[in-house]
Design goal:
Arc Repressor Mutant, subunit A, 2 domains, 143 residues, single chain, globular
Amino acid sequence: MQNLTLEDHLCFTIYALSRQFTCVYRPALDALGITYPQYLVMVLLWEQDGRSVKDLGARLYLDSGTLTPLLKRLEEKQLLHRQRDTTDERVVLVHLTAAGKALQEQAPTVTGALQDKMNLSLDQINALRGQLSTLLHSLEPTY
């Protein structure tokens, strides 16, 4: 059996790339006053306000122990608020505040920072996203 080098591991390349993405995003996110995981929550809420905590966790692949403190910090920044669903008190819904909605206007600077650094066409970006999504879904646990 051949010994694999670090560079032979696809998981390392993806891990290192994820860290680089975060570094490129950081200046734009700092200007917004949020972290990358907080940005991802905001993106989902900009897509559809009033999502449940459970839905946010499933979409972001985050457990409640990670997601709850993240939501609490966004709530402290007055970007969102959480409330129990009136039809099912077990469900907690997350809604944007006016400040959270307004932040969306500045959000294009985040993705623009990355697009400026990548030397890829839009077609290449879409193809790569498709391949990575296929890989992600193939690794999802089946319960």
